[in-house]
Specification:
The chain is an alpha+beta fold and 332 residues long. Helix content is 36%, strand content 24%. The strands form two sheets. It has a six-stranded antiparallel beta sheet with strand order 1-5-6-3-2-4. It has a four-stranded antiparallel beta sheet with strand order 7-8-9-10, with no helix packed on it. Strand 5 (197-207) and strand 6 form a beta hairpin. Residues 254-323 form the Flagellar motor switch protein FliN-like C-terminal domain.
Amino acid sequence: MMAEVLSQNEIDALLSALSTGEMDAEELKKEEAEKKVKVYDFKRALRFSKDQVRSLTRIHENYARLLTTFFSAQLRTYVQISVASVDQIPYEEFIRSIPKMTILNLFEAPPLEGRLLIEVNPNIAYAMLDRVLGGQGNGMNKIDSLTEIETKIMNQLFEKALDSFGEAWGTIQEVEPEMVDFEVNPQFLQMVSPNETVVVISFTTTIGETSGMINICLPHVVLEPIIPKLSVHHWMQKKQRERLPEEVEKLESRVKNAVLPLTAELGKCDISVQEFLSLAKHDVLELDQKISNPLTISVQGKNKFIGQPGKVRNQMAVQVIDVYEKEELFNE
């Protein structure tokens, strides 16, 4: 996690001060209420809105599920990967937060311009390597002394994991990620300027009995062209617009099989309630429409077509001759 937390000793000291009266909780509340000015650190400028951070979280929650499936198959052991946090911090702060010797997978994702980074905790990385080479998957930090063969195997393992990255991002932007560099010392890695804002997605990773973190570093300058696409409004619109061909075909087939009531109206007339009650067999009602006038054809109670009466094989029928447009057509 990137946020600062109190140590257990600091928590104990704070509780002790409150219980002995050295600090007054009410006074602390008053001091907090009196603060009108909020300190703003321009080095930690928030370049992504909460909405956009939520979209990034959803994308990488999907990526975590895909990685879980991928590594479970590759390593043939229990693997669990989930998003722990999504933070936007200066690049310099991210570099300080990761181990001095670690696994750094530098990659590009065309058409985006610039480089992205996947940092894998040494304990997790070696557990993966140990498992691939036939071991039990025990974690061990020997990253500073990786052989050329071990480096090649590990590089290939994470290169294949980039396919899942492209799949996870496909809902927002089609990208084609490709590995460009493999490094173990963060001090030799300068992707962007130290004060550049980056989004860091931290994954809690468990492989067998070994646990650790995987961090993905996405610079703001790289994501800038597609930032508008990260809004929920844009995402939901795209979801509604895009349907898979098989979904469209299935939907069309169901709609086409729906039964609709079709009514051809010969005409109307107004009668009193008394006349209605006295109606009997063979009575004749005079309609307000001439025989020569076309008929109104309604679908589900709504006027849709114009038709003319007739017969087909001694069956009464109505032929559709036009689309209904103006009601005046039936009052000529």
